[in-house]
Amino acid sequence: MTEPTPVRIRPEIAALPVYRQGRQAGAEAFKLSSNENPFDPLPSVVSALHDSMAVNRYPDAAATRLRERLAARHGVTADEVHIGAGSVSILAQLMLAVAAPGDEIVYAWRSFEAYPGLVIVAGATPVQVPLTADGRHDLPAMAAAVTDRTRAVVVCSPNNPTGPVVTQDEFDAFLDAVPADLLVILDEAYAEFVTAPGAVDGLRELGVVRPNVVALRTFSKAYGLAGLRVGYAVGHSRILDAARAAAIPLSVTAQAEVAALTSLDAEPELRERVRTIAARRDRIANGLREVGWNVPDAQGNFVWLPTGADTMAAADAFDAAGLIVRAFPGDGLRISIGEEESVDTVLRIAASVVRDLP
Ligand code: PMP
């Protein structure tokens, strides 16, 4: 049915675009549009999933084993860890927990596409602070954007889609500049790929030192479990209790928990993969700079190509060569670091695009 519904939808939701993924790739294409991990799942993960097929039972709502495991790993208590169906669901819970209509949530823009929608669903007002010209967070401007209606600030490091990190010094100065009762969410979905010295590490900021900071991490990227939906937060237990209260019960599956635990067992092997991806990223970023692209510091598993007004034409050129990349019309292309076999084509098409653009 395409007729209007008589049901009254909240007007801000009716106006909200549905979250869209990049195009799904056909068999002949490389999918470089969703910042996924190109390596096949580990055999140990596949086998653990195979052994955890009691799907007639509900999962442990508190994901106790995984919380305890992560708590031990990060030197915190299990109450200071919260598991979600992807870190994006924890982000939503935190926003719902702190914001009411009329409240503001500040974040940098351009950043992760999901932020504006999550803020609006929480009933709050998005306040977007432009990135600097080199794709970095402008933390002094973000601190200046905080008003007495601001309930949370989201800081994304490395920033999706541009790539640079926030430094520890910048972050500390930011925390000193904002009210101590302001929730600061540090979205570190790509933290494991960072090689730049001096980058912020949210897991060092923990609850006790900075009780208003919550760090978000995910198993989707470095751990290669995007399809299973599992991420976590580390922070003050009272803030995380509020997120737990705002959560949809039982949304983390038993299979997601088992796969995350098994991945933690295989950490050295996964870290090796991450090193491979980071090295490939540096090779691509440098190759792009050599042919004239002004690529911001790339610290995640992706690079940013500032294609501006020519973005859609550039995306078509990649598409025609079998590379599905993420286009942000009028702004740029984000290219995920994928299979080794995709690297030469990425560089070749990027070189031809820079030549062909006016
Ligand atoms: N934060 C950022 C910055 C991201 O780019 C993404 C995924 N694209 C997420 C959070 C969400 O990750 P998850 O799969 O854990 O929900």
Automatic annotation (TrEMBL):
Cofactor(s) required for function per UniProt:
pyridoxal 5'-phosphate
Q: Kindly list any coiled-coil regions of this protein.
A: none
- What is the uppermost EC class here? transferase
Supply the alphabetized keyword list.
Aminotransferase, Pyridoxal phosphate, Transferase
* Reactions mediated catalytically: an aromatic L-alpha-amino acid + 2-oxoglutarate = an aromatic oxo-acid + L-glutamate
Point out residues bearing the modification N6-(pyridoxal phosphate)lysine. Answer: 221
Residues in Aminotransferase class I/classII large domain copies: 30-347
What InterPro entries does the annotation carry?
Answer: Aminotrans_II_pyridoxalP_BS, Aminotransferase_I/II_large, ArAT, HistidinolP_aminotransfase, PyrdxlP-dep_Trfase, PyrdxlP-dep_Trfase_major, PyrdxlP-dep_Trfase_small
Q: Taxonomically, which superkingdom?
A: Bacteria
Pfam families under this entry?
Aminotran_1_2
Record's keyword annotation contains Transferase: yes
Q: Say yes or no: keyword Transferase present.
A: yes
- EC number in record: 2.6.1.57
**What is a GO molecular function of this protein?**
pyridoxal phosphate binding
**UniProt subunit comment:** Homodimer.
Spell out the PANTHER family in the cross-references. Answer: HISTIDINOL-PHOSPHATE AMINOTRANSFERASE, HISTIDINOL-PHOSPHATE AMINOTRANSFERASE 2
Name-wise, this protein is Aromatic amino acid aminotransferase
What lineage does the source organism belong to?
Answer: Bacteria, Bacillati, Actinomycetota, Actinomycetes, Micrococcales
